[in-house]
Write a structure and sequence with these properties.
The protein has helices spanning 8-28, 44-60, 75-87, 106-112, 124-132, 140-151, 171-178, 197-202, 263-288; strands at residues 4-5, 34-40, 63-69, 93-96, 160-164, 186-190, 206-209, 227-230, 234-235, 241-242, 255-256. Strand 2, helix 2 (44-60) and strand 3 (63-69) form a beta-alpha-beta unit. It folds into two domains: 28-113, 3-Layer(aba) Sandwich (Rossmann fold); 138-262, NAD(P)-binding Rossmann-like Domain (Rossmann fold). The protein is built from nine helices and eleven strands. Helix 2 (44-60) packs across helix 9 (263-288), helix 6 (140-151) crosses helix 7 (171-178) and helix 6 (140-151) crosses helix 9. The structure holds 5,10-Methenyltetrahydrofolate. 5,10-Methenyltetrahydrofolate binds at residues 49, 52, 95-98, 120, 140, 233, 260-261, 264-265, 267-268. InterPro entries: Aminoacid_DH-like_N_sf, NAD(P)-bd_dom_sf, THF_DH/CycHdrlase, THF_DH/CycHdrlase_cat_dom, THF_DH/CycHdrlase_NAD-bd_dom. NADP(+) binds at residues 165-167, 233. Pathway: One-carbon metabolism; tetrahydrofolate interconversion.
Length: 295
């Protein structure tokens, strides 16, 4: 028996259709959501991702605003560009594409993003809200993973989830998301310092591979029927995208995300959802005249 596919591409397409309707609704009130992207440098991978985000926007009816800066952009120049987007009313949400070149401080950049315009859910204030369980934009990959599992009927409440990877964009915030009352999963967060990785993965109903180590998790390390979510993106010698799970897991698992075609498209769909949500909230705020609420 082979595992069921957790089809992120199909799920993302369904979400995009729903978002199209919400964008049309906003248009009736004269509101157009606008996504800004800030890309520093000429990393080909990052360029491909940013191109994809603008393509997605066009499909859903979101305006997009692209800021491409040279690799030698200074700290002050980046700060100015971020402040311009904060002040630009046509930009309802934006992202600063990571990683930034080494001479720039990512924490500083993420700290400058107006929390009301944080499309990634990775700004300082947004991660703080997640810890405090206050409403705010959620990090796109963790949100996409929860959405993908939900829409495929994978039970989260009471599930034992093993997250492999403690990065700030995926592993760590995913642990916070899954342990909210609304998800109610029990999470074990594993990392490179974990002594008996297999003991933890074997105990889990859901395993999330977010370590970026190709083929790290093999069939002998998982429980029969488990749901497997592959966040890993590594290029092999032939340039093919490979994930954190070995191919043999498909024979033993209950569900597996294809890679590509799993988590990646969901991440992009959640970025769009965050932008639409931010525009809806900015509109509602303007409507209610609660102009002082945001200081
Ligand atoms: N501020 C910021 N926000 C991010 O969300 C962010 C970032 N920086 N830096 C880089 C990573 C990586 N990332 C991906 C998103 C989608 C795919 C994706 O859709 N991949 C397709 C394959 C490529 C394609 O078909 O276009 C797939 O896996 O099926 C991949 C990678 C977002 N990131």
């Amino acid at each position: 028996m082979t595992a069921q596919k957790l089809d992120g591409k199909a799920c993302a397409a369904a979400i995009k259709d729903e978002l199209k309707a919400r964008v049309a609704e906003l248009a009736e009130h004269g509101v157009t959501p606008g996504l800004g992207t800030v890309l520093v440098g000429d990393d080909p991978g990052s360029q491909i991702y940013v191109n994809g985000k603008h393509r997605d926007c066009a499909q859903v009816g979101i305006a997009s605003l692209r800021v491409d800066l040279p690799a030698d952009t200074t700290r002050e120049q980046l700060r100015e560009e971020i402040q311009k987007l904060n002040a630009d009313a046509t930009c309802t949400g934006y992202i600063v594409q990571l990683p930034l070149p080494k001479h720039l401080d990512e924490h500083e950049a993420l700290g400058l993003i107006d929390p009301a315009k944080d499309a990634d859910g990775l700004a300082l204030a947004s991660l703080g809200k997640l810890v405090l369980m206050q409403p705010g934009p959620l990090p796109c990959t963790p949100r996409g993973i929860v959405e993908l599992l939900r829409r495929n009927g994978v039970e989260l409440a009471g599930a034992e989830v093993c997250v492999v990877g403690r990065g700030t964009t995926v592993g760590r915030p995913l642990g916070l998301l899954l342990t909210r009352r609304s998800e109610n999963a029990t999470v074990t967060l594993c990392h490179t310092g974990t002594k008996e990785l297999a003991a933890h993965t074997r105990n889990a109903d859901i395993v999330v591979g977010a370590a970026g180590v190709p083929g790290l998790i093999t069939a002998d390390m998982i429980k029969q029927g488990a749901a497997l979510v592959d966040v890993g993106i590594t290029r092999n010698a032939e340039g093919r995208q490979v994930g954190d799970f070995a191919d043999d897991v498909w024979e033993k698992a209950g569900w597996v995300t294809p890679n590509p075609g799993g988590v990646g498209p969901m991440t992009r769909a959640m970025l769009l959802e965050n932008v639409v949500e931010a525009a809806e909230q900015q509109f509602a705020l303007a409507q209610s005249g609660a102009r002082y609420a945001r200081g």
